[in-house]
Amino acid sequence: MESVAPKVTVVVPTYNERDNLPKIVELLAALDVPNLHVLVVDDNSPDGTGEVADTLAQSGPIPVGVLHRTVKDGLGRAYVAGMTRALAEGADIVIQMDADLSHPTEAIPRMVETLATTDAAVVLGSRYVAGGAVASDWPWHRKALSAWANFYVNAILRLRVKDATAGFKAWHADTLRAIDVDGVQSNGYAFQVEMNYRTVQRGMTIAEVPIRFEERTDGVSKMSLAVQIESALVPWKLRFSGDAAQPSRVRG
């Protein structure tokens, strides 16, 4: 009897991404990843992204599900809602990917393969391991801020991860259950850090594969001052909310 490929669900939160969403689905459909599904989590976008998602669910090139949320309360909350739905629908692997085309879909097969062939609990698409890169059109101060954020997080939490704020990840479903993803409270970049911290605390392995991060070409960034402030405070909150993180096993 032929074995069934693991169900891989790509969770894509959206807010005003009607132009980018069809492009992402087409790029995902072109990948050589069997049993690949997409779950769009739309936060009631006023530009009609939710309706575009519904159309893709009816006639898209791969299976597309849509979770319509009525409140816009942050990227972290959207990811938690999407991941929770993906687990409930039987996903074996959950990939988190932003809707702005900054994350290279062509890295997904390697991320899935790394999960399947190593003891990694989660695989990060990393800008800061050998072979990775940030967008060439980033100004120097943004590159410096990104590098500083990773140094800052690792200095406080000792995650020993090159790209602690990475938002492109492939998770084993069992990992998300083990870290109680439904209980994650942070938003923005702090959400990424809290997810990594919970993984490290449980002694699980984080692997990193190189990606080239691209700047969005359509739409506008959702980064706000509140997200930046939270990102600065959350590592300290995590550090002093319980025992210090156990040293993680990180594979680059």
UniProtKB/TrEMBL annotation:
EC code(s) of this entry: 2.4.1.83
Chain ranges of the Glycosyltransferase 2-like domain: 9-168
Signal peptide: none
Source species, domain of life: Bacteria
InterPro entries linked to this entry: DPM1-like, Glyco_trans_2-like, Nucleotide-diphossugar_trans
GO molecular function, one term: dolichyl-phosphate beta-D-mannosyltransferase activity
Pfam family, one: Glycos_transf_2
Biological-process GO terms, alphabetical: glycolipid biosynthetic process
Keyword Glycosyltransferase recorded: yes
GO cellular component: membrane
Group of enzyme by EC: transferase
Keyword list, A-Z: Glycosyltransferase, Transferase
Catalytic activity: a di-trans,poly-cis-dolichyl phosphate + GDP-alpha-D-mannose = a di-trans,poly-cis-dolichyl beta-D-mannosyl phosphate + GDP
Coiled-coil intervals: none
Family: Belongs to the glycosyltransferase 2 family.
The protein, known as: dolichyl-phosphate beta-D-mannosyltransferase
Organism name: Rhodococcus wratislaviensis NBRC 100605
Origin organism lineage: Bacteria, Bacillati, Actinomycetota, Actinomycetes, Mycobacteriales
